[in-house]
Amino acid sequence: MAESLGLSRASVREALRALEVIGLIESIQGAGNYIRTNFDNSLIEPLSLMFMLQESSVKEMYDLRETLELQCVKLSARYIEENELGLLTAILNRMYLAKTEEESLELDIEFHYLIAKTSRNMLLINVLEVLSQLMDEFIRKSRMQILHEGNTRENLLEIHENLLRELKCREEAKASQAMKEHFDLIRKAYGYEE
């Protein structure tokens, strides 16, 4: 390969290592290098590492999450199917019945990721999945901060209920506004008011 490309073997070896690190190829000792057929998790480690090394701030995570979720909810309002609305309704009902804050939190995360999946935008979905560990921790911190600031669990449930209602109406602008209200609560809790 090095000869056909007119490069040194060391350069080709380094390029192959880089492709393996980002998950595009798989190197099998003694067998060669192969293009991967499953790219689902190919960006998880490099992006997670980037966020950790850059010590991304809570504000940066907030901005990223808001940007991604506002776009997801617009697309979701356009593409969501009746059975998915039923799933969101079931999650919301379980949120009302949750006995512990941990259970409420897990359902909150599930609610938001289902909205992302119903956007039908695989790139948005994959980016959110790549960032899931960081985003899940951000959601945990956001929820705790919101509750700490004197907002009640009922306020959070009402916001999620409004969001679901607007998705059922299938109006992108109203669904986006409902999601924005959710983020306004987070912004206020963290003191990021514009």
TrEMBL record:
UniProt GO MF annotations: DNA binding; DNA-binding transcription factor activity
UniProt entry keywords in alphabetical sequence: DNA-binding, Transcription, Transcription regulation
Gene3D superfamilies: GntR ligand-binding domain-like, Winged helix-like DNA-binding domain superfamily/Winged helix DNA-binding domain
Domain HTH gntR-type, chain residue ranges per copy: 1-38
InterPro entries in the record: GntR_C, TF_FadR/GntR_C, Tscrpt_reg_HTH_GntR, WH-like_DNA-bd_sf, WH_DNA-bd_sf
Pfam families linked to this entry: FCD (PF07729), GntR (PF00392)
Protein name as annotated: Transcriptional regulator, LutR
Phylogenetic lineage: Bacteria, Bacillati, Bacillota, Clostridia, Eubacteriales
